[in-house]
Design a protein that fits this description.
The protein is built from one helix and 19 strands. The protein has 351 residues and is an all-beta fold. A hairpin with a 7-residue loop joins strand 9 and strand 10. Strands 3, 5, 6, 8, 11 and 13 form a six-stranded antiparallel beta sheet that branches.
Length: 351
Amino acid sequence: AVQQGTEDFQCDNGVPLPLDNVCDFTDQCGDNSDEQPCSNYERCDFEDGLCTMTQDQSLQLGWTKRNGMSDTSPPFYDHNGDMSAHFLSLVTRLDSTSSNLRSRIFLPTNKQNACQVTFYHFFSQVSGKLMVGLQTACDSAIQHLWQNTAGLKDAWERNVIKIHSSQRFQIVIHGQMISAHEQNEVIAIDDISFSPGCLPANTDESLQCQETSNTKQELCNPDTNLCQFDSTDGGLRLCQACGFEFGMCDWSSEVSAGQISWTLTKAREVPALESTPRQDQSGDDEGYYVWIGAKQTFNHLDSKAYLNSSVCHCLGKGCHLQFYYSLEESVLRVGLYNNKVRRHLYLFQIH
């Protein structure tokens, strides 16, 4: 309970506790009474996924749910010392990796109560970066609120950020791993808590875009997505990345008579008799991918399965397509349609 006339929380055992220590997934009182009155907090311990948070769609390795027993890299336990409890980690092996984790949309804060965000982070290298920011429009710059500084290495640290905003906002946690060849280099985050001052907007609401970005948005719209970039600008614009976490995006499996089709499935739910990977390319058994397997082709030894993108408009010098694949005793080809005719020009083929 909150003591009258103070800013302290009164533990059941009589110990006073600062309010920003309440409902932070740590027993600060010693009798766990500070972890009981949490119904008006929005909290996520990552045991059941990302809760109300989302991860930016990307073809890079992103934030991955794991626990201390599922990897040879630290941390080997969550911030409370539990080896079986889950957290999110960002790991690099060869290439640089970065990923954004986004909160739901929150309403403007009032003058009395700030939106307080509490979380824990872990670092095992100094070349990575972890940043927490605020975004008030879908295309606005991210306002930096906090960035990791020199602190403990190979240990969990607690962070508290207080936010005042006169506009609707979204909290962005950005992790970046610099290319390295050392083992056991990782950034991890655990147990995020949003205080009652973080007032959630309706679940179907999103951040509005700034009017000044109209011309920029035209370069990459749903009608001409994926491959379009400005012919006056040599830089490539990745218009749509699809990780298959939220469906097929703009890809479709072509179903023809006597043919087989690609199937969207969660990695751990693929039939046991199939030889497909038990994790997606990021190592997550909760991740999704599209696949075609031996059982499907048993009666169609020469069958073909087509996975078609939406129409791509390459207005510049060319298009860039990036994807991950796994195959066994089969042939994978990438080709082109031109005016609805499948051309026998294969851009990529592997056996």
